[in-house]
Amino acid sequence: MDNKITSLFKTKYPIIQGGMIWNSGWKLASSVSNSGGLGLIGAGSMYPDVFREHIQKCKKATNKPFGVNLPMIYPQMDELLDIIIAEKVKIVFTSAGNPKKYTDFFHENDIIVTHVVPGVKYAVKAQEAGVDAVVAEGFEAGGHNGRDETTTLCLIPMVKKEIDIPLIAAGGIGTGEGMLASMILGADGVQMGSRFAASEEASSHVNFKEEIVKAQDGSTQLTLKDITPVRLIKNKFYDEINQAIINGATLEQQKEILGRGRAKKGMFEGNLDEGELEIGQVAGLIDSIQPVSAIIKAIITEYEQALADINSRKYHF
Fold this sequence. Notes:
14 helices, alpha/beta, 11 strands, TIM Barrel
């Protein structure tokens, strides 16, 4: 399956694993890369020394390309940048900030840069900043999200019209059929988070993984829009913050309820009542916790079958 994304990242398949906080450690990233996709280590939940350790372990676990996801609002960015250069990481996905700030720096060090965007204007700015590819993420996605609530189905063709660089679709994609649909709309590849969060290799707590499997249509909701929009599984914490918002809680009151470490408590420590359980709408299609190799094999099988089904249809007008 050769295209712009497999050529750019030197992978077998145009499948990128999202660099999710508390989910995307070295085991997940190396397993995805070994299975033909591009694995990403999620720096957003790691102290610099932990980040370095995960990169080093990933290099030992795979001889395939892998990268890191780097939220640019991270408070110790200079330390992470030093680690990326020292460890010779060659692929960086940036998010949560202006890509212009670091793109030239990465290119000077022979690093491929991809930026994650929630809308068309951000994709255009990323292209102008010189990034090598963009991930356009619809609001179906889990975790932190765009404010405009543009769905992937609409976002991908709108972005495709405005940029020339490779385009990766994200948000609500967890199957081979979803991958094919995204590529028909104009994407060159897909990024999947939720599907890999429910893998055996994900670093998140088994309680969280089992909650993903239980999720159905309507189990997730976008909330905390006054702070930073985030899609969560509805639980006790969600009910508390949502009711506070309905009752007119101020920004400061919402921040007080949110507190610190909610995502770690939910996804990494497995507290299903008091933690943030960040996951996408596509969780309703995930019905088991599987090894990464089985997940990617299933996605490719589904993709090929869906493509064959479309090619076999005859339409009469």
